[in-house]
Amino acid sequence: MTPERQLVVEDDPKSVGSEAFRTLRTNLQFTSPDRELRTVLLTSAGPEEGKSTVSANLAVAAAQSGQNVVLVGCDLRKPVVHSVFGLTNAPGLTAYLTGQAEQEQILLPTRVKGLRVIPSGPIPPNPSELLHSRAMKELLADLAQQADLVLLDAAPIIAVTDAAVLATLVDGVVLVLAAHKVPRDVAIHAKTLLERVNARILGVVLNGVRLDKKRDQYYYYSEGS
Ligand SMILES: Nc1ncnc2c1ncn2[C@@H]1O[C@H](COP(=O)(O)OP(=O)(O)OP(=O)(O)O)[C@@H](O)[C@H]1O
Ligand SMILES: [Mg+2]
Question: Which residue has a Cα nearest atom 3 of ligand 1?
Answer without folding.
Answer: 216
